[in-house]
Design brief:
about 375 residues, Rossmann fold, two-stranded parallel ribbon, about 15% strand
Length: about 375
């Protein structure tokens, strides 16, 4: 059955801003309900209705779900900053575990027939990647940071809730990037620095974490395609099914930086900083997406060079406009974004600190 009312949590976030247009294209007749944490955030661009839904306020969740009247739920909202999870682990546990379980319990009570698609994370496998073999869904989770542990716990809880009737689908996306991502993530951090160097706002020096690391990367648009396909096929998926969303191809972090510099034409010195390394780290991440290919017919479609060009073009635009926060995504940003060189900084720009560069394992 095609959903008539789709509730999307985290609608105003990086992935949510890409997922809303994808949902509109796939389900043009559906009402898209964009949930954000606060009512004053307004309606997320691309949604039909707004809903205030704060995962940290467990007592409000049943009423919020009842007001939305969903017949499908896509749960993206989370505290996804790995670095912040080390600084405040309890916040990650409260939102990512208790908030997710509270929302799922509310859906099970108020809208029990609604598929509940959860954006889990490839990070849940953590230290299991050290075995050096592609990680499949039956691999025992071994999370290596508080964020990953909180997501693994929520993932496990939804597996149990599926036994009680929740139509849970546990999506485990690996590292993904694209236009609109914050510079707290590695590709966006590199692109932001390159764009600032181009504009004369930063000396030709790039500060990074470990470059000899390999990660299984995807374009965010391919991730959204997987989510949409899973929702469309929800009736055919066993409750509680877990699906790795990954490329199966590890990419070296240093090679990504080299590619961005080549796309830009910038010459810069690269300086690795020990402070940017995680307390626990994994050299190589490699996922097995055979199940998603089999049950969804899904495979990543966007060439990696196009992804990098898209991220760099986005950061050039943001730097030129003097902003770091992303603006609303245009249709152009969902297609291949044309490269453009914006030259020197416009009047009024000022030097800013170099952005952080965290190195994710799986999302």
């Amino acid at each position: 059955m095609r959903p008539a009312r789709i509730l999307l949590t985290g609608a105003g976030g990086f992935v949510g801003r890409h997922l809303l247009p994808a949902l509109r294209a796939a389900f043009p007749e559906a009402v898209l309900i964009g949930a954000t944490r606060r009512a004053d955030e307004g309606r997320a661009p691309g949604s039909d209705e707004a809903l205030a839904l704060d995962l940290d306020q467990l007592g409000t969740l049943p009423d919020a779900v009842a007001a939305a009247r969903p017949d499908a739920v896509l749960h993206l909202a989370a505290r996804a900053d790995v670095g912040a999870s080390f600084r405040d682990p309890l916040a990650a546990w409260r939102t990512n575990l208790m908030g997710t379980v509270g929302l799922a319990e509310a859906v099970l009570r108020v809208a029990p027939r609604a598929p509940f698609l959860m954006a889990s994370s490839g990070e849940v496998y953590g230290l299991a990647f050290r075995a050096g073999t592609p990680v499949a869904e039956d691999t025992t989770p071994a999370p290596a940071n508080p964020y990953a542990a909180s997501k693994a716990a929520a993932d496990l809880a939804l597996g149990e809730m599926a036994l009680r009737g929740l139509r849970a689908i546990r999506m485990r996306p690996f590292t993904h990037t694209g236009a609109g991502q914050s510079d707290g993530f590695v590709v966006a951090a590199f692109a932001h620095q390159v764009a600032r160097i181009e504009a004369g706002l930063q000396p030709p020096l790039l500060q990074t974490g470990a470059l000899d690391r390999w990660r299984d990367f995807l374009d965010v648009r391919d991730v959204c395609s997987a989510y949409v396909t899973a929702l469309a096929r929800a009736d055919d998926l066993a409750p509680g099914m877990a699906l790795n969303i990954c490329s199966g191809t590890p990419r070296r972090i240093g090679d990504m930086l080299d590619s961005l510099l080549r796309l830009s034409g910038v010459e810069a010195r690269v300086e690795q900083e020990a402070a940017r390394l995680r307390p626990t780290d994994v050299e190589r991440v490699l996922g097995d997406c055979s199940r998603a290919r089999a049950v969804l017919g899904w495979a990543p479609a966007i060439p990696w060079e196009e992804t990098l060009a898209t991220v760099l073009a986005d950061w050039r635009e943001r730097v030129a406009q003097g902003r770091v926060a992303p603006g609303p995504l245009s249709a152009r940003q969902h297609a291949q974004m044309p490269r453009q060189h914006l030259g020197r900084a416009p009047p009024g720009h000022r030097l800013e600190p170099v952005p952080d560069c965290r190195l994710p394992l799986g999302d």
